[in-house]
Every structure is written in C-alpha cells, then in structure tokens.
Amino acid sequence: MKYANLIFEVMKQVYRVSPRMFSRATVIYLAQAFLPVAQIYITAQVINAVTGVLTRGETPLSALYWLVLQLTVILLGIALSSFQKYTERKMNAYVSFWFNLQVSEKLSKLPFLFFESPESYDKLQRALRNLSICGINMVFYIFSIIQSVITLAGLLVLLFSFHYILPIVMLLLIIPLLVIQKKEGASRFIVIHQQTASSRMAVYMNQLLQTKEAAKEIRLFDAKDFLLSRWRGIYFKNTYEMLGVERKNMKNRLVVESAVTVFSFSILAVFIWLGSRVKLTIGSYVALYQAVQDTRYSIQNISQNMGQIYHDGLFIHELFEFLDTPVPQQSKELPMAGQLFQGIEVDRVSFRYPSQERNILDDLSIRIKPGEKVAIVGENGAGKSTLVKVMLGLYEPTSGEVRYNNIPIHDYDPTSFRSKVTAVFQDFYRYELTLGANITLQESETDDWKSERQLTHAIDKASMTSLVNSLRDGVSTQLGTRFLGGRELSQGQWQKVAIARAFYRDFEVIYLDEPTAAVDPLTESAIFENLMSMTEGKTAIFISHRLGSCRQADRILVLKDGRIVEEGRHEELIEQDAHYAEMFNKQAQWYR
Ligand SMILES: Nc1ncnc2c1ncn2[C@@H]1O[C@H](COP(=O)(O)OP(=O)(O)OP(=O)(O)O)[C@@H](O)[C@H]1O
User: Fold this and answer.
1) Of 3.40.630.30, 3.40.50.300, 3.65.10.10, 3.20.20.70, which CATH number belongs to 344-430+489-589?
2) pTM of the predicted model as reported, rounded to 2 decimal places
3) From the CA of 383, how far away is ligand 1's center (Å)?
4) Residue 157's Cα: distance from chain center in Å?
5) What is the pLDDT of residue 133?
6) Which ranges form a coiled coil (predicted)?
7) C-alpha–C-alpha distance, residues 113 and 321, integer Å
C-alpha cells in the first residue's frame, strides 16, 4: 500500500468511526492554526502602544485595547487546547475499540490452523501492537501538520514583510529535519520488527511468572531464576539493540536541530548587526524575533509529525496487512446442515500440520452410521485428537474430505454445521465467568425457560447437579480465583463443566476427547454408562485411554500412525489378539 493510500485509508476508517468527532477535531485544529500569527501581530501592537505611552505620553487606551485582545486570544487558545485534549481522548477510545473489533472479527474468521504457527503469532503481535499507536495518532499528526502549515504560511508572509529572502531560507531548513526524522522512523521500525519473535518470548517468560497455572511448578521446581534469567537476557538484548539505535538517532537529531537553531538565531543577529539601517521599531523587532522562533518551531513540528507518520505508517501497514489476510470466502447460498440421516464419512483423509513434515493422518477412511457410538483408541500421538478436529471442520484435510450426509462439511453454511456438532475437548477451556456462562457461553436472558431447562438438563447429564446445589449462588457462582467472589473448582469438576457445555447444545454428533480423564471412577462410570442413553438417537464419537469405557461402543477404531489398524466390537478385537487386545490386557492387569 502506498503511503498516500495508507494515510487516506486511515483517515477514512477514523472518519467512519465517528464523523462528528472527526469534524469537531478538524475545526479545533484549524482554529488553533491562526492563533500564533495573531499572537505575534498583537504582541507587536501592544509593545508599540506601550512604548508610545511610556516614551511619548500617548493615551493608554490603545495599549489597553491591544492587551485585552491579547488576553482574549490567549483564553481562546486555552479553551481550544482543552477541547482538543478531550476530543483526542474520546476519539482515541472509539478508534481503539474499532480497530480492536476489526482484529477480533478477523481472528474469528481465520482458519483454526492460524493458531498453529509461530509466524501467525508474530503477525498477530504486530497487528495488536499497532492498535495502541496506530490510526488515531496518525490522524492527529496529519491534523497537526495541516495546522502547522497554515501557521507557517502566516509566519512566512510576516517574514516576507521584513525581507523576501527570509521565508525561503527558513523553509529550506525543513529538508535536513525531514531527512533525520525519516531515518529515525525507519531504524526504529526495523529493530522492533526484527524483535517481534524474541520480545514475544520475553513476554511469555515474564508471564509464566505471573500466572497461577505455572506458579506451583515454578515454586516447587525452583524455576524462578531460570525463567528470570532467560527473560532478563532477551529483555536486555532487545533493549540494548533499541538503545543503540536511539543513541545514533539522538546524535543525528542533536546535530541537525542545533544547526537549525543556530542558523535561525544568526538571522536575528544579522538584523541586530544591521541596526538602524533596517529601521525597525521595538515592536517590529519583537515580532521578527517571535516569527523566526515560531517558524523554526513550526518546521520542526511539521518534520516531527511527518517522521511520526512515516514511522507509524510502517506499523499500520502491518495492521492493515493482518486485516487483509484472506479468509475463506463463502457463497451466500450454502446448504444448511440438518439431521444426520446418511452418516459421516471420512474419505481418504490425510492431514499434516504446517510445521511438520510427516502426515499425522494418512489416507484414512471411516464411515459412521447415524446413531452409532464409536470409540477411537490408540497410543499417545497416534492422531486421535487431530482426527476429531478434522471431523469437526476445525482443520481442513491436506487431501481427502469429511462428509456429513454425503456433503463435504466445508461446503455447509458454517454456523448451521457447527450447530449440529458438539464436543468436549481434551484441553477444554476454563472460562473465569459464572458457572452458567461457562456452560451456555451466551448472555443470560431472564425468564428464558427454554434455556434454563436446557441448562438444568446439561448439568444433570454432566453429573454435576449436587455440585451446583452445593454452591450458594448456584449457576450464578463466579468460577476461578481471578475475580472477586470466585469459587475454584477441582480439575474433575472443571471437566464436568466442559461436559455440560457440550450437552447444553442441541446436536446430532458429539465428539468426546478423553472427557473423563480427570473425573473420579464413579462419575466416569456414570458418564459412560449414561453416554448411551444421554446420546440416544445421536451419534457419539469418543476417545478414551481407559479402554474399559470403550466396551459399550458399537465399534472401536484403533488408530496407529495416522491409520486405522483395527476395527470392530470389543469382543471381536480381543479375539483378534492384536494391538487393541495387547493394550486392553496391559491395562486390565492393573485391576486384577
Ligand atoms: N498443533 C500442532 N502442530 C504440530 N504438530 C502437532 C500439533 N498438535 C499435535 N501435533 C502432532 O500430531 C501428532 C498427533 O497428535 P494428537 O494430539 O492428534 O495425538 P493423540 O492421538 O490425540 O494423542 P494423545 O493420546 O496424547 O492425546 C503428535 O505427534 C503431535 O506431536
């Protein structure tokens, strides 16, 4: 994106957020632009009038008139400046929200695979970092430049009235200032860009020390020093790199800005040296002095703002690049997923993670009939969870396809397909919200008896009725320890919450990835015994390492190295005396 386009795009987005605020800010900035020239002019008049009163005995009325006018302009400046600050804050709040919303919306549309690569995290980090500096500041820099240009135009006219060469010389001073500002912006950007991955690592190391999840192991295994030293190492490496650049920038800036200041003072010196030959009144000399200083200040301001636009533009470009990440396009007329009457078919599916060289699922085919209860078993890393994610449509197969009622799942309207499937993930998430919100993941609507009945039903299915009854605030109990009044649950209780979440929905197919890994044997047995009745008429696909729980499955699939190596009912597989039988017998011997 070219710079002009980028600036235009930013202005367009900010205007879209609030046209009224944008217009108000424009008026405030423009009004302020005229104040410095007015001030210089009035100051000259005040001095000339006061000189008249003091040296020539003139009436003080004129001096007082100019003084009151000056006071009015100063008060106007104060009022505009206060308005400007308030408007800037307000715009900042709205624009930050807007860009945050864009990023979140974009993230929710990106394929789930986006979260599986470090490059994606770098991209996201760059986009998110820009939210704090971007958009709105760029608009203020532009406003500020327009303001300074208007002020500068007035000052140049004023300087021209002293000598035609003055505005030309003063204008030329902007060139070296612009050059160093551009260099500064580019060098800072390059370092920050290069440090994205390592600064993510430093933040991660630091956050590990601040989270409850890692705290117990860090304490027990005395890992604090290890983490701190890693964090410190990266932090200071990055900081010294940045400081090196800043030092260089500082030297350049010091030389150029000093040269510009010395030059502008030389102009004033020349006028003093010329003395009475230029026939200036005291007021005019003060005006000249002020005009030279203000011109210098204006060109510095313009170059600084241009430098900032250049610098922020490099960052915002990354934000827009993220927002432009292509998302799979959907045609409007997608079929809606309905009741499962033809089954699910995994047809010659292979899948490879972007970071991996081998296929995790390898030319795998499965047919599942409606209402069938299928168990998937296999060793760690066999590909069971990956298969579930592919069947849920979270990952798109590298080759082959998954069909629901003979239609590829990615061809369905995504919302309608998602409403037909539900899941308990092995690594389910603990939302530090109320128990009810954890299950429904929706805003609770008062007097919605249907969702209330669904909630009670889901709680019952997850065998957590007694737990809910024991809580003083029932489903309104805040969970976790992060927020006031929160109640922490045990690992198994959290798992029950995840199970209730899955059962809260109306579904056709339920996927349970080790849903009882953390629950006690009685609950596990209750869940699996009830699984058949709980999912009556529905299709259930579950993964479990506790092979006893698979006995009731209509079919067991044994997964090894991304392929189905055995398939059948429990008794049949025991009879085959192969991989499943070996795993089952090994596990069973512990119970004998
Ligand atoms: N996000 C990922 N990126 C890259 N590789 C992955 C990712 N997730 C899993 N893998 C790899 O894919 C393989 C299969 O993992 P998967 O989680 O599907 O196995 P699983 O059979 O469910 O194992 P477990 O019984 O331990 O849960 C493993 O070798 C794992 O290293």
Assistant:
1) 3.40.50.300
2) 0.79
3) 6
4) 47
5) 63
6) none
7) 18
